[in-house]
Design a protein that fits this description.
Elements: H1 2-38, H2 41-70, E1 74-76, H3 82-92, E2 101-105, E3 112-116, E4 121-126, H4 129-132, H5 135-150, H6 153-192, H7 203-245, H8 248-261, H9 280-285, H10 291-304
Parallel strand pairs: 2-4
Antiparallel strand pairs: 1-2, 3-4
InterPro entries: HtpX_protease, Peptidase_M48
Organism: Halogranum gelatinilyticum
Protein name: Heat shock protein HtpX
Length: 315
């Protein structure tokens, strides 16, 4: 009798869980149907796109301010950096970008980065670059960052990540009712069989896990595409800097000096910095191409001139 009572209790728990999950799935399906039934698909897609772009842009603008604050960056005014700004004015006169404000900060690694847009840009320079690099090398590095501002690379990357999060989130929301139904059926079968923990190994449990892996694979694939685009833009910025300065070797030397002075200290901002990746996975996930490849392209460009420039669009 005790065993029969236990089995009846477990069956009751299983049916209760099934009812709970099916109820939650029904509510989710009702909400989704109500939302999507009011608008046609093009309208929903258009609204999602607009919201993604707006929130991505706001995230980029406020993120720039937060990043500068986190690095304790200090702006260099034109009185203190008259020579620096004269050179920047000369460079920007040859490019479709306004002269940015230069900030000095203590970064994790010797480097420079561009933030903002072509009309309202900022270049952050690690303090060590002023003694680490020669004037020609520093100018080449700054021109590389100006090229990023000219092409709005930072903003495009932020919008791409915003679109990625929106797409994956939308897929998760659409799959949620189905996941709830599958989970409810699996847990109910586990309790009815007297082995509640075994349902994850059942066909129903494997179906749910497979759906989760599919969504994760989608996220990874899209992330790799965004990172590949980022590496492509690094090559484009190298080409643009070599074109403007007319001295590819100065940029190559500057990149090498930065690499040699860098130590493998990792933190939250590490993906923003120039560093070498040895593993294949590290290269796929890196926002920057391998340093050897970048330097080799610049040396080849200096040796053979414009004939060796890779056909990567600058704008």
């Amino acid at each position: 009798m005790r065993r029969l009572g236990l089995r009846l209790l477990m069956a009751l728990v299983g049916l209760s869980l099934l009812a709970l999950y099916l109820g939650a799935a029904a509510v989710g399906a009702f909400v989704l149907t109500a939302v999507f039934a009011r608008q046609d698909l093009p309208t929903v897609v258009g609204l999602a796109t607009v919201l993604t772009l707006v929130f991505g842009f706001l995230s980029y603008r406020f993120g720039t301010v937060q990043l500068l604050s986190s690095m304790d960056a200090v702006a260099i005014d034109r009185d203190r950096g008259a020579g620096l700004y004269r050179r920047l004015d000369w460079l920007t006169a040859r490019m479709a970008v306004d002269t940015p404000t230069v900030f000095v900060a203590e970064m994790q690694l010797p480097n420079a980065m561009a933030l903002g847009t072509a009309r309202n840009g900022v270049i952050v320079v690690d303090r060590s670059l002023f003694w680490l690099l020669s004037p020609a090398e520093l100018e080449a590095i700054l021109t590389h960052e100006l090229a990023h501002l000219e092409s709005h690379d930072g903003l495009v990357q932020t919008l791409a990540y915003s679109a990625l999060r929106t797409l994956v989130g939308l897929v998760l929301v659409l799959c949620l009712p189905f996941v709830l139904v599958v989970t409810g059926i699996g847990q109910a079968l586990g309790w009815l069989s007297g082995r509640p923990a075994s349902w994850t190994a059942s066909p129903v449990g494997r179906l749910r896990d497979g759906l989760g892996r599919a969504v994760a694979l989608l996220f990874v694939a899209l992330t790799l595409l965004v990172r590949a685009h980022s590496r492509r833009r690094e090559f484009a910025a190298d080409d643009r800097a070599a074109e403007i300065t007319g001295d590819p070797l100065a940029l190559a030397r500057g990149l090498r000096r930065i690499e040699r002075a860098s130590e493998p200290v990792w933190g939250l901002r590490s993906p923003l910095y120039v560093h070498s990746e040895e593993s294949r996975l590290g290269r796929l996930l890196s926002t920057h191409p391998p340093m050897d490849e970048r330097v080799a392209r610049l040396v080849e460009r200096a040796t053979h001139g414009e004939r060796t420039a890779t056909a990567i669009p600058i704008r």
